[in-house]
Every structure is written in structure tokens, then in C-alpha cells.
Design a protein that fits this description.
With 153 residues, the protein is mostly helical. It has six helices and two strands, in the order αααββααα. Helices cover 54% and strands 8% of the residues. A two-stranded antiparallel sheet has the order 1-2. A hairpin with a 2-residue loop joins strand 1 and strand 2. It is elongated, with a radius of gyration of 22 Å. The protein starts with a helix and ends in a 5-residue tail after the last helix.
Length: 153
């Protein structure tokens, strides 16, 4: 009787992870984005560990292009290295990219960093910070730095 239960649970888990793997494999395909094939539960973790983070990214860019999708565990990740697309994401469409990857290793000090905030808290902090970094103010900071370093008298 116990053997039947164990076999039944094993079959159910195998079927579940097969469905998850298929769903993950189809996720980026449906969006028209190529990328490395994820392993069930692990995503591309094995490939990242084997090659290292930097070399993995470089090899994926060479193989799939400047925009590719992959999975970290069960979470989809879009990697972009196209300068025009990055400029659009980081400047023009920045308000549409509210939530970013959360790193649990930050600790209490970094939990309030702008890149770690989510949802309404991120929007509130960003609305305070945006007026601080206008092009005029950044030019003023650059001029002040040049004067302090002796480039301009």
C-alpha cells in the first residue's frame, strides 16, 4: 500500500514538473524572444554556475542576440544589451518598469534603495528624486566638479 502511494506521488510530481518545464519553455517563445532552454526548477542556474555570470551573459548574447529571455528558478528574466532599447527603458519608459529583481542579500540598509523599492513606494520616492536630476542641475554639478579639480578657473 505504501509503495502505491509513493509511486503515485512520484508520478504526480513528475507530471507537474514536466508541465512547469513546458510552460517555462513556451513563455518566451510566445513573446517572440529567444533564449536558453530552462531546466525544470533550476532555470539556467546550472549553465550560469558552469560558465560564470559574465561569461554566461556573453555567450547568450552571441547565441541569441542583444535581447534574450531566460528563467532564474521559476522567474522569467529579460536580458537587454541593445543600447537604444536600454536608453528607452532607462529614460523614456522608466515609469513603466516599476518592480525589479529583489536581492535578499541586501540587508536593512539597502532595503530602502531605489532599485529595491516596489509598487507605490517606488513611485513616491521616484517622484521626489526626478526633479533633483534635471539636465540643468547635472550640468551645474559637472561644472562644480571641473572647478574643484582645477580644470576650469
Amino acid at each position: 500500500m505504501w509503495l502505491e502511494w509513493i509511486v503515485g506521488i512520484f508520478v504526480c510530481l513528475t507530471a507537474y514538473y514536466t508541465v512547469i518545464a513546458h510552460r517555462n519553455n513556451e513563455y518566451w517563445k510566445k513573446k517572440g524572444i529567444s533564449g536558453p532552454r530552462p531546466l525544470p526548477l533550476l532555470g539556467v542556474f546550472v549553465q550560469t554556475i558552469r560558465l560564470g555570470v559574465g561569461p554566461f551573459d556573453i555567450s547568450a548574447i552571441k547565441k541569441y542576440g542583444r535581447k534574450f529571455g531566460y528563467f532564474e528558478g521559476g522567474k522569467p528574466v529579460l536580458s537587454v544589451s541593445d543600447p537604444d532599447m536600454l536608453r528607452s527603458i532607462m529614460v523614456k519608459d522608466f515609469p513603466h518598469f516599476v518592480n525589479r529583481r529583489h536581492n535578499d542579500i541586501n540587508g536593512p540598509l539597502m532595503d530602502n534603495a531605489v532599485n529595491e523599492l516596489h509598487d507605490q513606494r517606488w513611485k513616491d520616492v521616484r517622484s521626489v528624486l526626478v526633479p533633483t536630476f534635471t539636465s540643468g542641475r547635472l550640468k551645474q554639478v559637472r561644472r562644480t566638479n571641473r572647478i574643484q579639480t582645477g580644470i576650469i578657473d
